[in-house]
From TrEMBL, chain A:
Belongs to the binding-protein-dependent transport system permease family. CysTW subfamily. One of its GO terms (biological process) is phosphate ion transport. Pfam families: BPD_transp_1. Keywords: Cell membrane, Membrane, Phosphate transport, Transmembrane, Transmembrane helix, Transport. One of its GO terms (molecular function) is phosphate transmembrane transporter activity. The keyword Cell membrane applies. Residues 86-296 form the ABC transmembrane type-1 domain. The chain crosses the membrane at residues 20-44, 85-110, 122-147, 159-184, 205-227, 277-299. It is a multi-pass membrane protein. This is Phosphate transport system permease protein. The keyword Protein biosynthesis does not apply. It is found in: Cell membrane. GO terms for cellular component: plasma membrane.
Automatic annotation (TrEMBL), chain B:
The keyword Ubl conjugation does not apply. The complex is composed of two ATP-binding proteins (PstB), two transmembrane proteins (PstC and PstA) and a solute-binding protein (PstS). Gene3D superfamilies: Periplasmic binding protein-like II. This is Phosphate-binding protein. The keyword Membrane applies. PANTHER family: PERIPLASMIC PHOSPHATE BINDING COMPONENT OF PHOSPHATE ABC TRANSPORTER, PHOSPHATE-BINDING PROTEIN PSTS 1. It comes from Pisciglobus halotolerans. Involved in the system for phosphate transport across the cytoplasmic membrane. Part of the ABC transporter complex PstSACB involved in phosphate import. One of its GO terms (cellular component) is plasma membrane. It holds the Pfam family PBP_like_2. GO terms for biological process: phosphate ion transport.
UniProtKB/TrEMBL annotation, chain C:
Its main location: membrane. Keywords: Cell membrane, Membrane, Transmembrane, Transmembrane helix, Transport. This is Phosphate transport system permease protein PstA. InterPro entries: MetI-like (IPR000515), MetI-like_sf (IPR035906), Phosphate_PstA (IPR005672). Residues 62-280 form the ABC transmembrane type-1 domain. It is a multi-pass membrane protein.
């Protein structure tokens, strides 16, 4: 009797294995969250010291248009207006997403719906390969090919938001495409079969059924692309011109948060205002990443409700 | 299957760590020098040469910019901090506890895209270009071509030196900026009408160096201060250097490095300088 | 419009756009290879780089890139796998899970330069790892984890719920179901995710500049004592990778043949990623065959 009781009250080998697996996977996720939190703390704590230690007003920082860290303006406040970079970052991100989205979705439709065989054989390897091209190579191709082309077509120096947009378009294309492919593939097969069985053409099926069903996934793909464009530094820095002034057109030199951040980080001394304000730029990048995320979530939820 | 593979890999990684921990102790020593990316090729080459001559001693050289070099040596995180500018010129650094070792001098020259029709300017004209008062090469007797100003990133040692000696108290206009000399040269070479500045060693046939007041940008003119846009290359230590650090700094200043390597890289040996200049820019002849 | 006509037009447009993509990408690849291939020789691939003379190679950088990739994968793959299993199989739908997902996605959109600086201040300075392969691998792990976790989770999710139910109905525990049923079935997807991640790691420069460093001290390939600085196995030595080398040449390089070296190095990088893709694909197919036949 006792033996049986012992057997029942003891955890079985299976239970042990189960809790072992559960613990391991939980530890992994906890570790990742810990890393994220420590990076957030690290960036934000440095970023806010611009406002609390150096007493720059948030309004001057977000809406000021003069960026000359290390110098003070007529009113005695440091000239650290980040608006030109914020506008530049949004500009290149939105434009490159507008360029890349239709192409990525078209390629994904081709690979999933129209010709999976050639798609898998040609498009997919090429796309995966492109992810491996380092951004510095993109930057130099941009500097050697894109900038001179823009210069000869539109005049000016060729540096600016347009050049950066074109470079970023190619850079985010692989990411958006491969995620769009995943999104389309996640649409259950019977959706398509039902639609085709009802007499819909291939395009009607794609447009009215597959794309609709995959909308949240596609949006995630685009937002991921936008996030990559927003955070890309080395390539953009080479073609945008890095002039910290409000962009007046698409072909005048401009700057982005990342380009100024990368360019100045090594030349500033930790703990000074010039350095802290760069971390404030990084904080904006973080907050933007968060906003992008909330946006997709919201759209995803809406999409789910409408179904 | 997958798990087994992962387990195997993990075990291998573990073994590697154990091997690292238990490997036989080797009699090796290394120091780290961090900072100015412009100085990196020089210090790296010298470090390699030094390691070849002194087995088991390694000089680990990293870039990152003068600001990084100064903050890291200030924090005591590295052995040597390389910088193009005086520690005193940089805010947030306790310059008193740092010891300055000047190992070379570098001249900086304005460069333009070939074909502007201008090869010589006065210092005032150069200042007016960078402060936005002159905006077309025609105003200087060249072609009718708008001037595009290209600066290095603010805080870069090259820019600080250029602005100190050319602009004085005036401020440069907001312009395009680039982080590195290599990129600056490439952009100047390809964008008609662009002006910027680089260290002498970066001047190639693709760009045109301007003379100022008919003084050519040459090492000889820097040595007697006829060409005033130049700066020291500093290697800072936190307190007096000791051991390998001291040995390596001595090596940097030895005739061997000064007269061969430093000249091969187009720097000016410190011993060739006929004058000495302090933080404020006051010069004294070298005895 | 007639639906048939619309169908034809739409499909035509899709063909055209896909064609344009292939064209852009192919010309990009050809451009890099056309500029770089003439520079590549056995000597270029094996000799050490030079800091200011002509004739430097990329031998050490190439080795460093692969070594760093392997180490990063060793650290990040198990972590990402565990995290993905948790998210896909165990996590309940509540705010904690939402929070975790948001955290991971925010991490993935961090600019790599921020990851690099974080790595510099924490691993290099705080933990005193110095500029080393270890610091670089840790920084790359941070950079790599979000995307890898996500792709593995996606791969796990594509396995139909019926497979899980079958496993549970057979009396397997949840964990056993995952390891014996779900993981093998999801393996090809997981491998594709890893290839994509490997490509990104291979080409990453910004996160490494301040962690693995920008110098490649000479290595002695006969020295396998991992504690010696000249040993290729040492994880505490500074290690410039191929991507960082390209960045360095282009920014401050003073070697006269910098353009050629950088063109050659870019081509090598592309070729390496290509080779890597092919090998992983082949392995993936083989593994799948083995599993499905067993």
């Amino acid at each position: 009797m006792k033996e049986i009781h012992g057997d029942f009250s003891k955890k079985s080998k299976k239970r042990k294995l189960e809790s072992f697996g559960r613990t391991i996977s939980f530890v992994c996720i906890a570790l990742i969250v810990l890393v994220v939190l420590s990076i957030l703390y690290f960036v934000i704590s440095k970023g806010v010291s611009t406002f609390f230690v150096d007493h720059v007003s948030l309004k001057d920082f977000l809406f000021g248009t003069l960026w000359r860290p290390g110098e003070v303006g007529e009113d005695g406040n440091p000239l650290v207006g980040a608006l030109p970079m914020i506008v530049g970052s949004f500009g290149v991100t939105i434009f490159s997403a507008i360029f890349a989205t239709p192409f990525a979705i078209a390629a994904a439709i081709y690979m999933v719906e129209i010709s999976p065989k050639t798609g898998k054989k040609i498009l997919q390897p090429v796309v995966e390969l492109l992810v491996g091209i380092p951004s510095v190579v993109y930057g130099f191709i941009g500097l050697m090919v894109v900038v001179p082309t823009i210069r000869s077509i539109f005049g000016g120096t060729g540096f600016g938001i347009l050049s950066a947009t074109l470079v970023l378009f190619v850079m985010i294309l692989p990411t958006v495409t491969s995620m769009a492919v995943d999104a389309l593939q996640a649409v259950p097969r019977h959706y398509r079969e039902a639609s085709l069985a009802m007499g819909a053409t291939r395009w009607q099926t794609i447009y009215k059924v597959v794309l609709r069903a995959a909308t949240p996934g596609l949006l995630t793909a685009v937002v991921f692309g936008m996030a990559r464009a927003f955070g890309e530094a080395l390539a953009v820095q080479m073609v945008i011109g890095n002039a910290a002034m409000m962009p007046t057109s698409l072909i005048t030199p401009a700057s982005t948060l990342t380009s100024i951040l990368t360019m100045s980080m090594g030349n500033t001394v930790m703990g000074t205002l010039e350095n802290n304000v760069l971390w404030s730029l990084a904080t904006i990048l973080l907050i933007m990443a968060l906003l992008f995320n909330i946006l997709t979530r919201w759209i995803g939820k809406k999409g789910a409700m409408n179904k | 299957m997958k798990l087994k593979k992962i387990k195997l890999l993990l075990t291998l990684a573990g073994l590697m760590l154990v091997a690292t921990a238990c490997g036989e102790v080797v009699d090796e020593e290394s120091i780290t020098a961090v900072g100015s990316s412009a100085m990196q090729p020089l210090v790296e080459a010298a470090g390699e040469q030094y390691s070849a001559e002194n087995l088991g001693k390694f000089i680990n050289v990293q870039g990152g910019g003068s600001g990084t070099g100064l903050s890291q040596i200030d924090a005591g995180a590295v052995d040597i901090g390389n910088s193009d500018i005086f520690a005193e010129e940089s805010g947030g650094i306790d310059a008193d506890k740092l010891v300055d070792h000047r190992i070379a001098v570098v001249g900086i020259t304005p460069i333009v895209t070939p074909g502007t029709g201008v090869t010589d300017v006065t210092l005032e004209e150069l200042r007016d270009i960078f402060t936005g008062k002159i905006t077309n090469w025609a105003e200087l007797g060249g072609k009718d071509l708008p001037i595009t100003v290209l600066n290095r990133a603010s805080g870069s040692g090259t820019r600080a030196t250029f602005e100190q000696w050319v602009l004085g108290d005036e401020k440069s206009i907001v312009s395009q900026e680039q982080e590195s000399s290599g990129t600056v040269r490439q952009i100047v070479a390809n964008t008609p009408g662009t002006i910027s500045y680089v260290a002498f060693s970066y001047v190639t046939d693709e760009v045109e160096a301007l003379s100022i007041n008919v003084v050519e940008p040459t090492n000889e003119n820097v040595q007697n201060n006829d060409w005033i846009i130049w700066s020291y290359e500093h290697m800072y230590t936190n307190g007096e250097p000791e051991g390998l650090t001291k040995d390596f700094l001595d090596y940097m200043l030895s005739e061997d490095v000064q007269q061969t390597l430093i000249q091969a890289l187009d720097y000016i040996p410190i011993s060739n300088m006929k004058i000495e200049r302090d933080v404020e820019g006051n010069t004294t002849p070298v005895q | 419009m007639n639906p048939k006509k619309a169908d034809k037009i739409a499909v035509g447009v899709i063909y055209m756009m896909s064609g344009i993509i292939v064209l852009i990408l192919a010309s990009l690849l050809l451009f890099i290879l056309w500029r770089g291939l003439p520079e590549i020789s056995w000597e270029f691939l094996t000799s050490p780089s030079k800091s200011f003379q002509v004739g430097g190679g990329v031998g050490i950088q190439l080795f460093n890139s692969f070594y760093l990739l392997i180490l990063t994968m060793l650290i990040s793959a198990p972590l990402a796998l565990g995290a993905a299993i948790y998210l896909s199989e165990y996590a309940k739908k509540n705010w904690v899970t939402d929070f975790i997902r948001t955290a991971i996605e925010v991490l993935s959109s961090l600019p790599s330069i921020v990851v690099g600086l974080f790595g510099f201040l924490i691993f290099v300075v705080q933990w005193d790892f110095g500029f080393s392969i270890l610091s670089g691998a840790l920084a790359l792990t941070i950079f790599n984890l979000p995307l890898l976790t996500r792709t593995i989770e996606d791969a796990l999710q594509t396995i139909p719920a019926t497979q899980r139910e079958a496993g549970l109905a057979l009396g397997l525990s949840r964990w056993e179901t995952v390891t014996r049923v779900i993981l093998p079935a999801a393996l090809p997807g997981i491998i594709t995710g890893m290839i994509l991640a490997a490509g990104r790691i291979f080409g990453e420069a910004a996160a490494l500049i301040y962690t693995a460093g920008q110098s490649a001290p000479a290595l002695d390939f006969t020295n396998w004592n991992p504690r010696s600085i000249t040993s290729p196995l040492n994880i505490m030595r500074p290690a410039e990778t191929l991507a960082v080398h390209i960045w360095k040449i282009n920014s401050e390089g003073v070697m006269p043949d910098g353009t050629q070296v950088s063109a050659g190095a870019s081509a090598v990088l592309i070729l390496a990623v290509m080779l890597f893709n092919l090998v992983s694909r082949y392995l993936g197919k083989k593994i799948q065959k083995k599993i499905t036949s067993a």
